[in-house]
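Contributing new complexes? Match this layout with iron/sulfur cluster.
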Amino acid sequence: MNQTWENEALCAQTDPESHYPEPGGSSRDAKRTCLACPVRPECLEYAVTTEQYWGVWGGVSQHELRRLIRAQRAKAAA
Ligand code: SF4
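Output block (do not edit by hand):
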């Protein structure tokens, strides 16, 4: 990644590891960081458009992100 918004990523200044929980682990702390992040919309858009399947991005869990990616694919195919 080399996006301009990354320079303002709050997770890079706090605890990046919390954004990649072990399977079954909690994403609560990462989501809390995202809620205060100034580039949350840009981050989420990037994660969906580049199909990031691992980690918490833009305030959504891996599970939620996969659902958004599937929806984006369905929309593109329609
Ligand atoms: S929205 Fe969350 S994952 Fe994205 S840059 Fe901000 S803190 Fe990091």
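Reviewers usually confirm one structural detail per submission. For this one: The CA atoms of residues 33 and 42 lie 15 Å apart.
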